[in-house]
Automatic annotation (TrEMBL):
Membrane topology: Multi-pass membrane protein
Primary localisation category: membrane
Intracellular or extracellular location(s): Membrane
UniProt GO cellular component terms: membrane
Name of the protein described by the UniProt record: Uncharacterized protein
Keyword terms: Membrane, Signal, Transmembrane, Transmembrane helix
Origin species: Skeletonema marinoi
Length: 470
């Protein structure tokens, strides 16, 4: 607003409006609301600005925060001293690292000012190994929405597979998947950033042991090791949050959109606000993951409801709560919640020493590793039972009669095969996850390497459980 009001004054002094400075000011003001903190741009070196004439301000102090930088841009239009010296300040590039403010350009640290040299390490910080799991969550949510749609909308001539593929190719559903992946990525980067800055992630003195753990089990902490600057990581994370907020605007359905935005807020608040609180950090992580299929399912329901066929059929516009609470999706959500609770506790066991030094009261820090491993074992049992819950409900009352009817013919076998397949996959997946947790429980949580191995190997069990719901 200041720049707009003083356009005439600037024209009187400079005969034109410095549009690049105006645009840069608007971008900084808008971007400051989505940056990780007010001091994301920790320092602005003199080479940030290109001057058209020299002045007494050429060696002036450089602003140290985003809001001070905004004041510099807005003062171009209002500060009489700047107008009198006829200095044009145009942003040419924004530096991510703390640079010298003594007037030098800091060319020796040129590599630290850009994201590209560290792009590989930054992408690894996003934990791309989690992306297939996120994609499966998304597909499962859409799949359950399609099945529930076919149950409530009779008759539906289109096959479930055709509806599923068409929904997955919808641009709005692609934005849902992108948002879920960005929520996962930002949570990993933000957590690693603050853990390294607060001293939670510490590189062990035994280098050989550390390399072994990192290579075998993916214990990758480039920020703690000093291979990636903090400022570059913060800037990269800011870009991801900006893209996340933009993509959330295209998520269909108000509830799904609020879930995505709520997930983004949770990932930002996690390390500083939620992680230091015992139990709260584990519950928030588990709830965040368990809500992913629901987000995709409700978004898919919104797309189906807004389709031409749905409008012609006069579908109710109410939220399909039965999709969440009266369908197999409820078993999936409960299984995911319990499984992630177990996994988070196991990860707390591996980070117990660093959390204790940083004063983070996790479960193993507050109650001991033995207690934490016992709680993790309990959650793994709950996850296993929940994964098999739908099959058990169907099989226990009539299991004997159906097993006896299998011998009568192939038709009876075809009726029971989907339920049998689901029971086998869910039992194998839940059993594998519980077995890995049991190994940690036997050591009373004392074997950190075994706990790290259980976290990684447990992913196979999660995949089997997810496959059982398809």
């Amino acid at each position: 607003n200041t720049l707009t009001k003083d356009t005439k004054a600037m024209r009187r002094h400079h005969h034109h409006t410095p549009l690049p400075a105006k645009l840069a000011s608007l971008l900084l003001i808008t971007g400051s609301s989505i940056l990780l903190s007010a001091d994301t741009c920790e320092a602005f070196p003199p080479s940030l600005f290109r001057k058209r004439s020299t002045s007494s301000l050429s060696r002036a102090s450089i602003p140290l925060s985003t809001f001070e930088a905004i004041d510099i841009f807005t003062s171009v239009a209002t500060d009489s001293k700047l107008r009198r010296d006829k200095i044009y300040r145009y942003p040419t590039r924004i530096y991510s690292s703390s640079a010298a403010v003594d007037g030098s350009d800091g060319e020796g640290d040129e590599k630290k000012k850009y994201i590209r040299p560290y792009l590989k390490q930054l992408l690894l910080l996003c934990r791309p190994i989690n992306f297939p799991i996120v994609f499966l969550f998304h597909v499962l949510g859409v799949h359950r929405a399609v099945e529930f749609w076919k149950m409530t909308m009779q008759p539906v001539s289109t096959s479930s597979s055709s509806m599923l593929l068409s929904l997955l190719k919808e641009p709005s559903m692609i934005m849902v998947l992108l948002s879920l992946m960005l929520v996962t990525s930002t949570s990993m980067i933000t957590n690693d950033y603050y853990d390294a800055r607060n001293g939670v992630d510490v590189v062990p003195d035994d280098t050989d042991k550390n390399e072994s753990i990192r290579e075998d089990y993916g214990h990758y902490h480039p920020l703690a090791q000093g291979t990636v600057p903090f400022s570059v990581t913060k800037t990269f994370d800011s870009y991801l949050y900006a893209i996340l907020l933009l993509s959330s605007a295209f998520v269909p359905g108000s509830i799904s959109r609020l879930m995505v935005i709520g997930g983004a807020i949770t990932t930002y608040l996690y390390t500083n606000e939620l992680k230091p609180k015992t139990w709260i950090k584990n519950i928030s992580c588990a709830a965040l993951v368990a809500m992913s299929p629901i987000t995709s399912g409700l978004a898919a329901w919104k797309v189906l409801r807004d389709s031409t066929a749905a409008t012609a059929a006069k579908v109710s516009t109410s939220v399909p709560y039965a999709l969440i609470f009266q369908s197999p999706l409820s078993y999936l959500v409960l299984s995911l919640f319990a499984g992630i609770m177990c996994r988070e506790i196991l990860m707390d066991i591996t980070d117990c020493e660093g959390d204790a030094k940083a004063g983070i009261q996790t479960l193993p820090v507050k109650y001991g590793k033995e207690m934490a491993s016992t709680v993790a074992m309990g959650w793994s049992i709950v996850a296993c039972i929940s994964a098999c819950g739908e099959s058990l409900v169907k099989w226990v009352p009539i299991g004997i009669s159906r097993l006896m009817s299998m011998s009568s013919g192939a038709d009876a076998m075809s009726v029971t095969f989907p339920a049998a397949r689901k029971l086998v996959l869910s039992t194998l997946g839940g059993g594998l996850f519980a077995q890995k947790t049991y190994q940690v429980w036997r050591t009373k949580g004392g074997d950190v390497v075994l706990a790290e191995k259980a976290v990684r190997d447990g992913l196979l069990g999660v995949l089997l459980v997810l496959a059982s719901f398809m």
